[in-house]
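User: Second chain of the day. Same drill as before.
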Amino acid sequence: MMSSFPNNVAEAASLRGESSEDGTVRKVGQIVSGRLLECRPETSVAEAARLMRLHRCSSIVVVENGHAIGIWTERDALKLDFSDVAAYDQPIGESMTRKVKSIEGDTLISDAGLRFKQEKVRHLLVVKPDGSPMGMLSQTDVVLNHGVEHYLTFRDVRSVMSKSMVLLYAHTPLSQAARRMHDEGAEAAIVVSDEWEDDGIVTERDIVRMIAERRTGTVGDAATRPVVSVHPNSTLLAARNLFSQHGFRHLAVRDESGSIMGLLCFSDILSILQYEYVAQLNAALRERDEALIRSRRDLHLARQVIEASLDGVMIVNEKGKIEYVNPAFTKLTGYGPEEVIGKNPRLLQSGQHSVEFYDQMWRSLHETGYWKGEIWNRRKDGSIIAEWLTINTIRGEDGGISKYAGLFSDITEKKQDEERVRNLAYFDALTQLPNRRLLTDRLSLAIATAHRHNYRMAVMFLDLDLFKRINDTLGHDAGDQVLVEVSKRLQDCVREGDTVARLGGDEFVVLLPELEDPADAARLARRIIESIQEPMRLGEREMAVTTSVGIALYPEDAQDSDGLLKCADHAMYQAKEIGRNRFQLHSAAANKLSSERLMAEGRLRQAIDDGSFHLVYQVKVDMTQGTVCGTEALVRWTDPELGVVPPAQFIPMAERLQLMSRLGEWVLRTACRQNRVWMDRGLPPIRMAVNLSPQQFLDGDLPETVSRVLEETGMPPELLELELTEAAIIDHPTEVGRILARLHATGVRLALDDFGTRQSSLSSLRYMPIDALKVDNSFVDCLGRAFEERDIVVAIIRLAHALGMKAVAEGVEHMHQVQVLRDAGCDEIQGYLISRAVSPEDMESMFERRLLPAE
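Assistant: Same format as last time:
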């Protein structure tokens, strides 16, 4: 049995045609290959020898039931009786060495050399920490990878060669030669013959070759000629290079006359390497002891400096756990060592920094090895401390991160001083609002942002009506109280991100950096006027204050800071001229549009209070039967003054005014009540579909509202189908998912409307209790004209079925669309082809009719 890698580094290099002499390799696991030559105990000696010769290995491991029970090496080959060829057929288990010596993969190469000498073996099985084998290590591997070539350069062959050698005549029977080599512990012997011009050499590997070829005979038949030789004065490095060049493990040593003086083996070089290693180790130990004494002295001094430092010091290990803090750390944070050691430094976080802040910190630590900057942390007592923090990465000898050292000082007072200076420069001392300077900066930034993103924005200029009279009659202290109270009320009126500034005296400016509609600015102006005119108490007196507001719009009125402020100021004076305590837009067209919008909003509020809406119903048809399977309730509004208002206008308006929950509940109740009426008249039960606004999901009580309506109207839950849009899922996936689960538990059906118009997350969709997907009419409308649209519709229908949902197509107007949808397996359709939205009375006439030809 053979795995797919060579037995050792030298053999691997030979197979690849590469040099394996890498002086940088220092551990056994790094030089041994993953290949291991194996056989079973019943394998014949000849077959084992053949495998060793085939794979150029000097050993084979005998394995039984997955465990190594022995090893057979070239040395063991010398034990055979070569006089009888039948000996080659004996099982390898009878002649193997029973105990397999092993060594762990993380052992140093130099230590492996010592093990070879101690165990008196030439092969060690390399194992992983769990005991599983990695490969076989030979003396050859160690010599080629020991990494001490400089020692071999200064030693010659004469100093380590074996002067005693076995000399054999070529006619000596192989059995006698093997027995003599075994008895004298020789790995090789010199072979001479009167008939040969050059001497030869026979090695254990030659003996294995004879066994593999099932040959007996004389030692001359097994010998290799001529023997490669080296001069006794050559360096051991030159000898090692010869070994590598020829793939031998033995060299003859010849003097100047050409006579063989002895043999040089790999094991001889290994012996001198171990001698040099021990000498080097002793020198290193002496140097280590001296360095340890110096290190202890330096460490004691460093600890004294750290303990006495006024800056906090914290040491964190590579796992993010605190290992050490100094006394200054305790003084600055309030935490003692016993309270923080072993814990994560995040216990100091103040919550004032974003995730991106800490991501950047760790990125800097990993890329540059340090980070420094200002950071806000929290003391043990909960108070916030500003720190100047420096963190350095400490690496171990292997280059990996072992520690992080943090050094910080308290800069809270410095930051407070900076804040006070900044407030004096940018904030009004009386009201603490931004002053003219800060307003100018923010206004310039807002204009640049609005220009870049094509936003609209507004500037509101206001002052208090007859404020001078307050100062003259009640005094400046009372006037200051009024200004402070007005500033608070202004801040309560605006959104987060808006700016309220005081220019001086009783003049204020409100900046709205993002504006969807001029009516939004008008609404805010009205809210500000109503808020300010609420009575305010000054001591024991109560008084009312009014204000006039001017509004300028970007980009309609002006495109720069000064222009917008001038337009707003001018509009404010117009408001004063027409009676005070009111607002005025600078643009007449914007004034008209704002007035119309405000009037429409007022009519909408009144309509919701009066119930001036009505429902119409658009039928859904089953594609298989061609009969009614459900209907969708659609809300309509006809106002006495505005006339018919399209849903595309009043639905967004209701959402903007936070009225959709009230309107949605009315629609739900009315639709369920109508379906109950149809059932009570004996008409077949059908599903009633009701659309939900994303706003209804955010109000939080939607499941309770649905349950209450079902109970009040007596409509079975399974006949109610609630339709939501992709936008609701995308914008608020977590909240919507929880609410859908609660709705599904009541027994109602859930459908996803306008599917394909937004990029829903399929990973989220598959876990939501959706019963049906509605293919948006924008895709259905193109069926028959655009192949890609047909493919999209088919894909959506298949997706719905794959998710266990029904597929419903809306906006069907032509029969060719029906055929495409039917071929794609669509379950239900609705659209003008079947019927427009009709009154409840007209809807009744459709219950018993076949509205679509059956398949």
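The first helix runs from residue 9 to 16.

User: Great, on to the next one.
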